[in-house]
């Protein structure tokens, strides 16, 4: 080997994902095995992603991690499980250019530096754990030359955070609950890639929340322990919905996709309400958004927009095509206008080209909006400023990728410390 | 018979009731037969009641009804069913003093005038239909000298409005779902009278609502048609809760009573959320009240207050005794103060004597309130004025009674028209 202070690193980018058939409840808290299957759509990492740089060097004296610039502890079981599982699958690595050669057996004696960064706020409730653990596992697998496919890697990511397993793929993904106790068959598989149904446009309303929310981990445990409806959901309802959703995705059947997504989101929140103490993730703003979408869908005869909510008040709205997305955005901005003097490009982020298509890129363009004809009344008036913090416009996206350009690395290539 | 212009009338007063094990879903829309049993507590008619005067006279040319001063149509099937059923059981009536004699066979040719008045606003969502139909049936039964006990009368009231059957008794009441196709065994029975557990104090928070709510009738029909959790609730959950609640009431076991009431209220709302389109009866204010109560109960170790919500945002809070009720009211007024210059006696109605016990009858007494120690944080700040319109303080109460004093009558003794 060359000088003992070489630093070898890999940087990767991973998307986040949103479940359309929900995971809520574990049958095994340690291995993170769920009580039912779940299906998700991966979001475009151009808009929402985690970037992680992992580095190894003989000069590192212990494993260290920095998340969004702050050093955090790796001592928790979720991190320890992921690190142990990935290390045990490490292979030989050789970088001739740098003169770095690591044998399979060397990895257990080497320490890692990990830096991870989300391009969206953790407080926004946008599933940063999922993207984060997926990125950790994917980037370590690349670093350590692990010879496993994404499904096998997903079983490791799963042990960091259940929904992370679904971020190992782009497009539409299913996390199969599995039946083995060791969880080796509780893995994610890709149903279709991100090009399969690329008409879909996803608009996320980041809803202002005053309440500190119940964490998913404790919430779902309380639901398993106290909800008399959860087992019925897991055993009788979800298995049928999974099959129907697989068909809907395969056939690009938006009407079925919508009916299933909305019903499953609502049932998940119903189980939360059926918990003791009850968990309320959605708030009045979430409900107003649902009313808007439900009324519009019914007035059009065939569903135009699907909605789904995770463990928080944010609305994830999936429009069947761009034209519908533009109308949806106009409706949303009518009912949830920005505070005065807000720059529209900071109120609608992600794919902001939609602003121009919606005629909303000029000054005062929001004041000129007309109420959507189908849903004129009963949603409330156009004065609910501040209920929505901002909107993100995105689409189904690709799975994890390595970022080969050193400028994107989060660790300095010589010191291995955060840049 | 004396002059053809005699008017014979009866005035009665009926309470309203709040279900603690909920009725939500019919197996027969015409006869109003439910999918599960339900249990309720009758509220003190001194505070919330319907008064109905029913009159008969040969001078009346058609059946007419006035509700809260406005004439309404009796042509709907609910009114027609009640009128037909009660007329079918009419007996002989003689008032020697007035020289009136009506025979069983005469009733079908005579017409009725009915005037009904609720002492609480319909818009407050306080189950005015239940009290109203119960009063209609009870007063007509008295007028027509119907020889049936209260449970038999409840089967008639049930056909006007399901929950009306439970207002035929005071105290704690059960509506047995029955199994016969004709509904003759779907009746209310009294579990315990109003004196059995008279320590209980009931505080209702009438929550401001901006939305027009889904009616119970259409809401529960949509739930039956679309909720995959409703049947499981009706077949598996409620049948176990009913005997547990009967035991809790019999034994004055407040801990079990609270656990069951809260769980059942939440499950009812969970089924509403699991409906397509989803129904949201509770709002953020309702949720804040639940959080307040849940935190307090947990900090005390043993439940102090039970909560239950019907098809609207109003909170019905049941305290185990007066001392707890006073503390609860102080906590509620801290978090939901009245707007400035509000007279406390119009902000806390019903049994106002509780204001004095809570030290809240003086000027500026609300500003002097301290936050309850157990629940200092996380409920939100003391600036949510206007979220609660007002509070009603009441208790378990008696069943229907005749009001013999003519001054209570809503119809004029000579014309039979509204006074």
From TrEMBL, chain A:
One of its GO terms (biological process) is sterol biosynthetic process. One of its GO terms (cellular component) is cytosol. Its EC number is 4.1.1.33. Residues 15-188 form the Diphosphomevalonate decarboxylase-like N-terminal domain. It holds the Pfam family MVD-like_N. It is found in: Peroxisome. It comes from the Eukaryota. InterPro entries: GHMP_kinase_C_sf, Mev_decarb, Mev_diP_decarb, MVD-like_N, Mvd1_C, Ribosomal_Su5_D2-typ_SF, Ribsml_uS5_D2-typ_fold_subgr. GO terms for molecular function: ATP binding; diphosphomevalonate decarboxylase activity. It catalyses: (R)-5-diphosphomevalonate + ATP = isopentenyl diphosphate + ADP + phosphate + CO2. Keywords: ATP-binding, Lipid biosynthesis, Lipid metabolism, Lyase, Nucleotide-binding, Peroxisome, Steroid biosynthesis, Steroid metabolism, Sterol biosynthesis, Sterol metabolism. It is an enzyme of class 4 (lyase). Residues 202-402 form the Mvd1 C-terminal domain. Performs the first committed step in the biosynthesis of isoprene-containing compounds such as sterols and terpenoids. Belongs to the diphosphomevalonate decarboxylase family. This is Diphosphomevalonate decarboxylase. The lineage of its organism: Eukaryota, Viridiplantae, Streptophyta, Embryophyta, Tracheophyta.
UniProtKB/TrEMBL annotation, chain B:
It is found in: Peroxisome. It comes from the Eukaryota. The keyword Lipid biosynthesis applies. Keywords: ATP-binding, Lipid biosynthesis, Lipid metabolism, Lyase, Nucleotide-binding, Peroxisome, Steroid biosynthesis, Steroid metabolism, Sterol biosynthesis, Sterol metabolism. Residues 15-188 form the Diphosphomevalonate decarboxylase-like N-terminal domain. The keyword Lipid biosynthesis applies. Its main location: other. Residues 202-402 form the Mvd1 C-terminal domain. Belongs to the diphosphomevalonate decarboxylase family. NCBIfam families: mevDPdecarb. This is Diphosphomevalonate decarboxylase. It comes from Eutrema salsugineum.
């Amino acid at each position: 080997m060359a000088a003992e202070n070489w630093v070898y690193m890999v940087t990767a980018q991973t998307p986040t994902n949103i479940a359309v058939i929900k995971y809520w409840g574990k049958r095994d808290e340690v291995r993170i095995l769920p009580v039912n299957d779940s299906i998700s759509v991966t979001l475009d990492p151009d808009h929402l992603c985690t970037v992680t740089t992992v580095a190894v060097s003989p000069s590192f004296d212990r494993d260290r991690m920095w998340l969004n610039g702050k050093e955090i502890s790796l001592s928790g079981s979720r991190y320890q499980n992921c690190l142990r599982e990935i290390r045990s699958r490490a292979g030989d690595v050789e970088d001739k250019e740098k003169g770095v050669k690591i044998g399979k057996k060397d990895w257990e004696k080497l320490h890692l530096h990990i830096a991870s960064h989300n391009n969206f706020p953790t407080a926004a409730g946008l599933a940063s754990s999922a993207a984060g653990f997926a990125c950790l596992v994917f980037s370590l697998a690349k670093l350590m030359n692990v010879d496993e496919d994404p499904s096998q890697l997903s079983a490791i990511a799963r042990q960091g955070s259940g929904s992370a397993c679904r971020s190992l793929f782009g497009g539409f993904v299913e996390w199969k609950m599995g039946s083995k106790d060791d969880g080796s068959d509780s893995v994610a598989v890709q149903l279709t890639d991100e090009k399969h149904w690329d008409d879909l446009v996803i608009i996320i309303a980041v809803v202002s929340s005053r309440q500190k929310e119940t964490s998913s981990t404790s919430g779902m445990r309380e639901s398993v322990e106290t909800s008399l409806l959860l087992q019925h959901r897991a055993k009788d309802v979800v298995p049928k919905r999974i099959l129907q959703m697989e068909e809907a995705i395969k056939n690009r059947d938006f009407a079925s996709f919508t009916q299933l997504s909305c019903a499953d989101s609502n049932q998940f929140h119903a189980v939360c309400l059926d918990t003791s103490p009850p968990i309320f993730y959605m708030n009045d703003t979430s409900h107003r958004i649902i009313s808007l979408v439900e009324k519009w869908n019914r007035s059009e005869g065939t569903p135009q927009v699907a909605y789904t909510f995770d463990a928080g008040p944010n609305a994830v709205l999936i429009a069947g095509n761009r034209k519908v997305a533009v109308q949806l955005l106009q409706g949303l901005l009518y009912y949830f206008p920005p505070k005065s003097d807000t720059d529209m490009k900071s109120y609608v982020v992600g794919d902001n080209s939609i602003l121009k298509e919606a005629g909303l890129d000029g000054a005062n363009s929001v004041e000129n909006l007309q109420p959507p004809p189908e849903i004129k009344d009963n949603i409330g008036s156009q004065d609910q400023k501040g209920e929505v913090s901002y909107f993100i416009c995105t689409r189904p996206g690709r799975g994890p990728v390595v970022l080969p350009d050193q400028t994107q690395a989060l660790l300095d290539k010589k010191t291995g410390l955060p840049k």
